[in-house]
Amino acid sequence: MVRITGLAAPLVLAALAACSPVGAAQDAPPAPAADMAGPAVSEAGLQLTEVTILSGEERHTFATELALTNEQQAKGMMFRTEMGDDEGMLFPSYTPQARSFWMKNTPLPLDIIFIGPSRRITNIEAGVPYSTDSVFSDGPALAVFEIRGGLSEELGIQAGDMVEFELPEDAAP
Predict the structure, then answer these.
(1) Which of 78, 114, 115, 123 has its CA 20 to 30 A from that of 142?
(2) Considering the entire predicted model, what is its pTM?
(3) Alpha helices (H) along 68-126
């Protein structure tokens, strides 16, 4: 797993503060220091990693929350009201399979990026706030990556782009 260490960790953790669920305690305990054992976590308690999308000559890197458990994946970005341009959430499948997502209880527009077994983007769908209409992967997906709605187009991210990420060794079921 990619660990955020040194001076970058407090900056990344501070940047992810905007992604905490609505109603989260304002005086929550501080995130663990970067030099402590264990993975970095967001204010929402999710492990953090970096996801990089290689789009042509450009590299776009995102501080990313990992939705590793069924419960974390079911909740996803529900109830969140902000997401930075350098933030995302990754939903790994562990075994490539058809995936579908909806936006129930999600007030933010999102780009839902389906990642195929070759770690290339198969398709990008617009997540419409509060919609219960599902969007689907074009074929089996190894993971799904969510970023702020419209950001894929702004950055030139498209189907066929390579996605780099690492999962913790103990993450697979």
Answers:
(1) 78
(2) 0.78
(3) 70-75
